[in-house]
Amino acid sequence: MSALSWQDQVAAQPRQMTAEALALRARHPPRPVAGDWPGTRAGRAEIVRMLCEYTASRGTDGQGQLRRSLLKVLSWLELQPGGSWQQRWQASGAEEDGRADWRQGAVARLRGAGLMPGAGLVPKSFGGALAWMISADILRPRLSWLLVTESPHFLMDPMAHARDPEGTAALQACARRSAVSVPSRVAALEKIAVILAAKGGPVSEITVGDCMDLLAACCAEYPDPRSRHHSALFYQLLHGAGMLSAGAPPTVRMFSPMFGGKLTPESLVDRYDLACRPVRDLLVAYLRERRPALDYSTLRHLSTILALYFWKDLEARHPGIDSIRLHPDVAASWKARVRTRTVAGRAAERMGADAVMLKVRAFYLDIAQWALEDPAR
User: Residue 314's closest CA among 279, 265, 359?
Assistant: First the structure.
């Protein structure tokens, strides 16, 4: 089994909230995801009337296409079991894989029922119809699904007109005053629309806990910490527009899993889910011994080298390994992996390899010295 690159291993490190973040979540809890609400039990005729009022108030081009697509989406949902549109949406299975195109399944089901003749392309306007249903609070898809689906991709525009014109206008004004690029502002506003879509209500009802739920979902769906999806500009806009409750921190650093607080040696090692318990315990004991002489950043870096770059790499290459007394061939192959990386199919020298091996060598020397000083231990 090939080992992950250092970059991929670091990107895959588990993220967790600190004790302070958990306490903040208790003071500003997320709103529960409702199973039922009046909008999701609206009748078909009432929904069509709402759409007509929406398009008339906006003078939107393509009103006929949007209405036809809405009728098709409603017919597809009516083929599913359930007493509300939300129950039918959940029964459809569309949320099982957010990266799959739900529209293809909807069209296939409609054609199978004889409600959509022909074999043409899947209508892209289905996404617009679903976006409007979400903004009108008829459906509330899961946060994780909304973060990864390609359709609907833009929710803030219908949300601004159908859900909360005043709240979204305040956010947009705050965004225009910020010194960030237009694409960054649009992405931040879309994240706020995702919260509204999943939790319901106007902008003013968003809680710090809702924001924490969104950040956690972003970490789960996009684990690479370098991903643009981890931007917290959306929180700054909510805070700057005065939409959050009193006591809400001005930045997300206090509660985002991307900015972890100080972890214990046990938690530092357990981030990597090591298979061999005795070696795991040895690494924890070693970090405890070294902790008084190290600042937290150095201790964290040392835990990453020993637990991830060293032992996790060995476990990936040698399943069942249970001793730090390594066979010379195993040690030599590990050193070779540390020293090289593959770039465009060619081996290249890895920067920082000497520092990693020095830390591991120091670990072995310290263990040997402590064994001399305290043989019983």
Answer: 279
